Write a sequence for this structure.
């Protein structure tokens, strides 16, 4: 194979490869999030700070594993955001950049939530400088720290939902990905935003989440699988990229 043929093959595979990397990292992000939830959720006993503290201390390795899984999820999604920016730039560079901004902002907000999960590990080990607090006080403060991530999570979901809406619009406008995937993702992103604001504004808003989240996951999951398995139509990607470049000129 000549050097020119190798270069041409690389050019053809480049957008498809980046799309598949985005899909693979997105799947890793989802699986890591599920693993983090499975590791941490059984340890937290609602409205029982003492039992929760005992569970964390008894299963500290599992708790730390959940934190690591959430960290992997955040790092993976940063990769998803960057690769999707590249893949969708031919549709609209400005909207792709805006979507990337909302995605990275959501990861940053999620990072604050993950850090708060480390607070119980500091408080519950009872180092000397914490002797001014009683055991009950330390357990109560740990419980507060565990409840904060849920509230911060919904703030991050607003940013993530807006990113999904923007990506969905870009996918629907593209010529190299199925339009239906963009529509499903935009609907899913809207569901994320609705669920988040419902949790802020309505006393029973959190109870709506089990009904709204599956709708969001259908859109997110469909695009993830397509990107991982099919990637993009490279020929149409380059055609749209060339047309976008000519418009800018």
């Amino acid at each position: 194979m000549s050097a020119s043929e190798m270069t041409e093959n690389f050019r053809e595979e480049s957008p498809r490869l980046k799309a598949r990397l985005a899909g693979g990292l997105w799947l890793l992000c989802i699986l890591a999030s599920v693993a983090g939830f499975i590791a941490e959720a059984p340890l937290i006993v609602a409205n029982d700070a003492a039992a929760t503290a005992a569970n964390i201390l008894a299963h500290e390795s599992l708790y730390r594993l959940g934190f690591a899984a959430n960290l992997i999820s955040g790092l993976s999604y940063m990769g998803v955001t960057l690769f999707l920016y590249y893949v969708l730039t031919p549709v609209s560079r400005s909207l792709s950049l805006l979507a990337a901004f909302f995605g990275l902002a959501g990861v940053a907000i999620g990072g604050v939530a993950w850090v708060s999960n480390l607070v119980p590990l500091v408080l519950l080990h009872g180092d000397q400088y914490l002797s001014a607090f009683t055991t009950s006080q330390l357990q109560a403060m740990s419980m507060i720290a565990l409840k904060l991530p849920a509230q911060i999570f919904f703030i991050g979901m607003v940013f993530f939902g807006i990113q999904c809406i923007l990506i969905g619009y870009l996918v629907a406008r593209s010529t190299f990905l199925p339009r239906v995937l963009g529509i499903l993702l935009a609907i899913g992103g809207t569901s994320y935003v609705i669920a988040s604001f419902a949790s802020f504004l309505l006393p029973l808003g959190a109870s709506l989440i089990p009904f709204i989240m599956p709708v969001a996951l259908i859109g997110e999951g469909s695009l993830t699988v397509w990107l991982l398995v099919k990637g993009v139509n490279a020929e149409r990607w380059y055609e749209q990229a060339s047309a976008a470049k000519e418009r800018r000129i």
User: Anything to note?
Assistant: The radius of gyration is 22 Å.
